[in-house]
Amino acid sequence: NLCEITLESFADQTKNPRISFLVNKLHVSFVALLTHLSQITSNISRLAIKSLFFINNRVVECPELRKALELVYSQVLPQCVGKFGPNRSQSSKADTNIFAYFSLQIPANLLDVNVHPTKEQVLFTNSKQITEGIIDACKEALLAESDVQCFSFNACSASTSSVPKTKLNTSGEILTSLQSLTNRKVLPQFKVRTDYKSRTLEAFFDVPEPFKAVISSGESTNSEVCIVPAENEKKRDKSPDLAFDSDPADIVSPPRKRTLINKELQQWTKEKYGKASLKNTDELGMPQKRTELEDKFRMLVLDLEKDASPKLRNVLRECKYVGLTTHKRRYMLVQRGLSLLNLDLDQMLEEMFHQLLLRNFGNLGEYRLNKPIALDAILKKLGSREEEERRRIHDQIIAKQILLFDYFTFRIQKHKDGLFYLHGFPMLLDKYLPDLCQMPTLMYRLGEIIGETSDESRLLSALIRLLSQFYSNKLTPMSREEDKCYRWSLEHVILPAFRSVYFPSKSIEETKAITTLTTLPVLYKSFERC
């Protein structure tokens, strides 16, 4: 039969004692031949598995089964070294290679051979359950033939005061080494006293709502406006291009879905959009999606993720908020293990918001002004500009209001008085508000970029860079309450975003935007007596 022919073909591999068994499970029957544990030397690190897999009498590759087999030997071998070491054969017959032969019979309707052009690989239904069943049978057969018992242990923390003194005959050495590790005292200067996964009660309370901000330039006519997220709307589904960590402490609230400006927009059609009269209407239509633009920004996101630094990403995932360093709020202190790190918020926030704008392109949330502000009044806050220049900027923004709303949720509407009012602006992160005192400058730069760029692709790229700079800058002095809200957003909004959605580029590492100020062992030398 096939098994005997295989043994004859691999005579040099099968001349030593082997373990064979037959199992039927999940409508699958398989025969296996495995190297006996007594024939393996103690040099476990250099072991190599030579495997031969037959599925329905055809030689195939099965990486999943091979990896699982390596895991079984790595779990079983350390327990057998002590048992077979003194009595191990020292002849040349002992080898450091493991030979494994598997012959599986699977119903044809559960098998898919159209995976590889040469049919070297196959897929089959319930592959995970079948692999687990095969591996369990292999592990049981190896331990039974070798007369070795297998025990599992839970990881013990460094603070464990005692370890059970009961020792089993077959794993006494393991228990002895485990006890010596857990009884080892951790020095104070090397003890980590923080947990980046822990959360405080403040994280469960929102920033005082509604957010209040003043769009001003120091004039006495400035009025305070309330800014609130769009109400009575269901939350938008997460962007498919945005990968979140599984840690619930790091989840960032997704943007809320925005609504159309008026009910008439819900009934617009392609026919209506194609009419020339749309250019003169006051309604704000929705342009057709451009596949090439979406593909371009999707490729940019992939390039950003490829250029990301895995080292810095792992560092940010384990950081705990400490505070701010300067009165300008440019640097943030965080703790990672025994190290105190300094983060340059200017560089990191700008890069993170740039990535969010690319990932959520055309799918952003929206902040609403409960009291709309005239676009002309916002531009007048820049008192040094001439009237003709402000009017030119105003007209250029109005000419692109459809694009601004569709891709960036800048909601600009014409009122009965003939003026255009700003009703809303983008929300990149829930509960994070930019410096609205810089809104006049933003609108002016917005109009300038629109006037200078005719190509739509370049225009969108320039607007994304402009918005990322606007959301990352916090230049206006804050009151005590505003500063408190800003610190709250850093700890409970920005830092979780750094952990989950931010891919720090290698340029961040080169510019040393993340630096180590000191470590606990260094500080302990100075403050040990305190």
Automatic annotation (TrEMBL):
Organism superkingdom: Eukaryota
Boundaries of every DNA mismatch repair protein S5 domain copy: 2-143
Gene3D superfamilies, sorted: 3.30.230.10
Alphabetized InterPro entries for the sequence: DNA_mismatch_S5_2-like (IPR013507), Mlh1_C (IPR032189), MutL/Mlh/Pms-like (IPR038973), Ribosomal_Su5_D2-typ_SF (IPR020568), Ribsml_uS5_D2-typ_fold_subgr (IPR014721)
Protein name: DNA mismatch repair protein
